[in-house]
Amino acid sequence: MERNFWTTLTGKFNVYNLLLVFAIASELGFEENEILQAISKLKRVNGRFETMKSDSGIFLHCRLCPHALMLWKMYWTASMKFRRKMKG
Q1: Helix%, strand%, coil% for the chain, nearest 5
Q2: Distance in angstroms (rounded) separating the CA atoms of residues 85 and 88
Q3: What span, in angstroms and rounded, lies between the C-alpha atoms of 72 and 79?
Q4: Residue 61 forms beta bridges with which residues?
C-alpha cells in the first residue's frame, strides 16, 4: 500500500535516515500513520544544510555551525549592500 508524507528535511542522506526511522518504528510496533505524522513534524537543525536565497535568486546550502553561519550571513548581507551601492 502506498503512503504519502511530507518533510522539510532536504538532502538524499535524509531520505535514507527517514526510511530507516520508518523501518525501525514499524518493527517496534508503531502504526504507519503515527510514524508518518511524526516524520512530517521533524524540523532541521539550524545551521545544518540551511538554504538561503540571495536577491539574485542564488540558493546556498550550508553545513555550518551556528557561529559560522552567522558570520556567513553577515558577509552575504554586506556583499549584497556593496553590490547595490556599486550599481548606483
Answers
A1: 55, 10, 35
A2: 5
A3: 10
A4: 51
Q: What confidence tens digit (pLDDT) does each residue in 29-59 have? A: 999 989 999 988 888 776 566 666 666 665 5
SS3 54: coil
How far does CA 17 lie from the centroid of its chain?
13
Distance, CA of 73 to CA of 68 (rounded, Å): 9
Distances (CA, A) of 35 to 9, 40, 45, 48, 49: 16, 9, 20, 24, 24
Alpha carbons 38 and 11: distance in angstroms, whole number: 19
Check: CB of residue 51 under 8 Å from CB of residue 72: no
Q: Is 53 helix (H, G, I), strand (E, B) or coil?
A: strand
Model confidence, pTM: 0.54
All three cell numbers of 83? 553590490
